[in-house]
Write a structure and sequence with these properties.
Elements lengths: L1 E5 L6 H17 L2 E4 L5 H11 L4 E5 L13 E4 L6 H7 L3 E5 L3 H12 L4 E4 L8 E3 L3 H14 L1
Parallel strand pairs: 1-2, 1-5, 2-3, 3-4, 5-6, 6-7
Helix pairs in contact: 1-2, 1-5, 3-4
Length: 150
Amino acid sequence: MQIAVIGSEEASEELKCTAKEVGRLIAKSGAALLCGGLGGVMEYAALGAREAGGQTVGILPGVNRREANPYIDIAIATGMDHARNVILVRSSDAVIAVGGGYGTLSEIALALKMKKPVVAIKGGWEIDGVMVARDATEAVRLAIERIKSL
């Protein structure tokens, strides 16, 4: 399984803690964590996955793989800016949104259009087709259950 974690590069301490726990739980489930590879939610999700022995992949907006945060195992430099969101979502079996803004909203829309399971936590994303989770444990559980049911 490959689960994407999406969210803002500028994130509160609460969102960073939640993202780290989501990453840890994804790794514990045996799934690979995909993200945008930069800071904020992406960095903390990758940190949690790395600390739990998981694999992390960053789909970067720029052309330099060294732009990836230090917890990315595989950095893919796309040079596509926000268009890289399509690659991130297409490569994932499910998407978990931790907070976020317009970039996150675009990834949610792409995932729904591609019929990928989407779980939101701490973002206020009450959108048709998006499952809302109370915490990291529920978010990862819902994502994995939906992947397995497809």
